[in-house]
Amino acid sequence: MLTSNMVFGGIVIPWELLQQSFWPILIEGIKVTIPLTLISFFFGIIIALITALVRISNIKPLRWIFSVYVSAIRGTPLLVQLFIIFYLLPELNIMIDPYPTAIIAFSLNVGAYASEIFRASILSVPKGQWEAGFTIGMTYRKTLFRVILPQALRVSVPPLSNSFIGLVKETSLASQILVTELFRKSQQIGATNLDQIVYIYILAAFIYWIICFVLSLAQHQLERRLDRYTAR
């Protein structure tokens, strides 16, 4: 057991334990948490865009199906969705590792929430933009992809960036289905230091904050770049 401690305001802080735990936890964040976030967000955005386009279309059966999907995902906890997919796939004789299972669950979750962002962004584009496209002879599809979507995507960047940062934190739930990501690594370290486990969790929270802070800076830079192309 590590004994090198620091006393701060009457609180004994296991400084040596925190120093030795920092890099293993951070490495799991870089190796597992961030890739899990990126992959899930990538597929989630594809699902979201398809869902949004279907929900503004005139194909009623598909609109109903995708509306039920969005309602079901938004109306149930993400942890429950993880467990359902984790235990349902083996029942269907589909055997995959916990990591891909987490990607499926997070992608479906992101897809449902981000689809509402896309849908709202598309609907926020003035109707005059549609009329302008039709006036110069564009079809519905060309107007959508060349006129409407570029404007809608610019509007959707801030809320999508927030969703991405939120997903970084939500990946901690993957620890419940045995994915060894940042939080699960802290649990493993804490399990061997039960009397000091709260400090390990505080360290994990600090690392999450560092990652999210860096991503927030990147978000601001992206928004600044996009502002150059926004009419005022």
TrEMBL record:
Superkingdom as given in the UniProt entry: Bacteria
GO molecular function, one term: L-cystine transmembrane transporter activity
Subcellular location: Cell membrane
Keyword DNA damage assigned: no
CDD domains: TM_PBP2 (cd06261)
Alphabetized UniProt keyword annotations: Amino-acid transport, Cell membrane, Membrane, Transmembrane, Transmembrane helix, Transport
One Pfam match: BPD_transp_1
GO cellular component: ATP-binding cassette (ABC) transporter complex
Transmembrane segments: 32-54, 66-89, 198-218
Membrane-topology annotation of the record: Multi-pass membrane protein
Keyword Membrane annotated: yes
InterPro entries: AA_ABC_transptr_permease_3TM (IPR010065), ArtM/GltK/GlnP/TcyL/YhdX-like (IPR043429), MetI-like (IPR000515), MetI-like_sf (IPR035906)
Ranges where the ABC transmembrane type-1 domain occurs: 30-219
NCBIfam families reported for this sequence: HEQRo_perm_3TM
Family affiliation: Belongs to the binding-protein-dependent transport system permease family.
Protein name: Cysteine ABC transporter permease
Record organism: Terribacillus saccharophilus
